[in-house]
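Worked problem 6 (solution included).
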Amino acid sequence: MDERAIGRSGQSASVIGLGTWQLGADWGDVEDKDALAVLDAAVESGVTFFDTADVYGDGRSEQTIATFLRGRPELDILVATKMGRRVDQIPENYVLDNFRAWNDRSRRNLGVDRIDLVQLHCPPTPVYSSDEVFDALDTLVDEGRIARYGVSVETCEEALTAIARPGVTSAQIILNAFRMKPLAEVLPAAEQAGVGIIARVPLASGLLSGKYTKDTVFPENDHRTYNRHGESFDQGETFSGVDYATGVEAAAEFSALAPEGYTPAQLALRWILQQPGVTTVIPGARSAEQALANAETAALPPLSQETLTAIQDLYDRRIKAQVESRW
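Solution. The predicted structure is:
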């Protein structure tokens, strides 16, 4: 699988990475053996980038990655984690002492002395404008705790603020065929600044896989049940903020655009890969089969201009008015 440089950091990532939120919590139950099978299928398919967070299963995702990598010492996998969501979301909590404590915990979970890439995990908006926050992150680098740092954001405005910081290596942002706003300013600004773009929620929480109908029922412990209106965290993380009924109808149209040899999910991933400035896209997977199918997208032929135009038209007609004013 092709790899792309993460901005000017000297690090690189496979164009299809693996998001591991599903392996921790909030997507229904995933057994340990299935989680390890997902990781194995991903690396056997050429994936070299894992994205996790200290809050996914309260550390379970990080620990599962550590267990897997201990059994495969020959692998060269860049592991990115995130920090900041295990405390009250107020700017006053984003200080050096807390960063050290959170970092200590993640290093224990991951079984490493230094973490490849640590990202602020969608903190309160004022955090991105704080010199003290980024000085503290620089200190973590100087102390050898982390190699690089980046941000995970909810809005384009937050991304643009963070990208202007000289030490920021990457910006992780929701980008998919139902969330196109980052294409206008964020991706060009990141490319100019030498900042990598990690595209998350690429399937709009599964909507773009075309598997769901208006009658689909998700488990109670799945955020697609309990966070549809932002009850637990930002609504944009669930179905990209799109009303479920609208999303299901639009997803059916999207599925019909898949060229021969593509699944709808692969169409969604391929669309992201063709956006200038994207470093890697991080779909999650709850089974080895899903991980394999996601990785296979990297070898599919590019989408035609006709297909790209049709996807843009669908977004403009059905989705844009719901999401662009908020994120």
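Discussion: Residues 160 and 186 are 6 Å apart (CA to CA).
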